[in-house]
């Protein structure tokens, strides 16, 4: 006789499993005083344009995202690079000037009372950007740079380290160990795809579960994961129609946060326009992701 699929023993086993793991159903948040709506248990969002393109448009983008996340009760941090150091071509846009861009970031944080996130590329930049930003982000290509990690850690700011496209999720435990040794455990790890051939990336969602073993917030970058790097023209391509697909999978495996770059007109963006989300699509996407997130928690 076949054993019933939903036997009493099986139900008891499943109940025991989920009761032991209920704490993993709730996201881990970075320790940021300005991060609102953390009582909701919703995933947090890091979002904004790729780079500060001018002194006005970032405020409009921030205002829109703040309104959306307030309505949806999503903890939110504004992100934009104050400079783009990692460029393929010499004529690619790098920024409006470091000091000017950092001041824009700081002003956005103050005006909208939200944390702001920006990239740093060397030790001097870490110390400088820490005066303006709440979160220092280590680009994926630099995630193994010990001196950079030390400099970022020693600022006392929250540090978001993007997993290198060349690293396994398991290898990121060494990044966490370094940060803790440098006296800063207030950090995040971000999945942003793994190199697949010369001109593509893939996301292995087992990596979210693996990196969560480090007991720090784990974020999935749903836009950079869709890049098509190393194009002959020297401009990175992308596959933005798959943003929702990556986002759905990310919240289904219970990532703590979502990272995405967004712009009112991605085709006119001065960096990474090929893989950015159109700003007008942000609210409907987040509504969809919230539904899946809440279902996954149950």
Question: Quick gist of this model?
Answer:
This protein has helices spanning 8-20, 57-72, 98-112, 123-129, 146-154, 172-181, 206-212, 243-252, 282-297, and strands at 44-48, 76-79, 116-119, 135-138, 158-162, 187-191, 194-195, 201-202, 218-221, 227-228, 237-238, 257-263, 277-278. The protein is α/β, with parallel strands linked by helices.
Name a few traits of the molecule:
298 residues, alpha/beta, TIM Barrel, two-stranded antiparallel sheet, 13 strands, globular, disordered N terminus
Describe the structure.
The protein starts with 7 loop residues before the first helix and ends with a helix. Helix 8 (243-252) runs parallel beside helix 9. Residues 1-8 and 10-23 have low confidence and may be disordered. The strands form three sheets. The protein has an eight-stranded parallel barrel with strand order 1-2-3-4-5-6-9-12, surrounded by six helices. Strands 7-8 form a two-stranded antiparallel sheet. A two-stranded antiparallel ribbon has the order 10-11. It has a single domain (41-297), classed as TIM Barrel (Alpha-Beta Barrel), CATH 3.20.20. The longest helix has 16 residues, at 57-72. With 298 residues, the chain is of the alpha/beta class. The protein is built from nine helices and 13 strands.
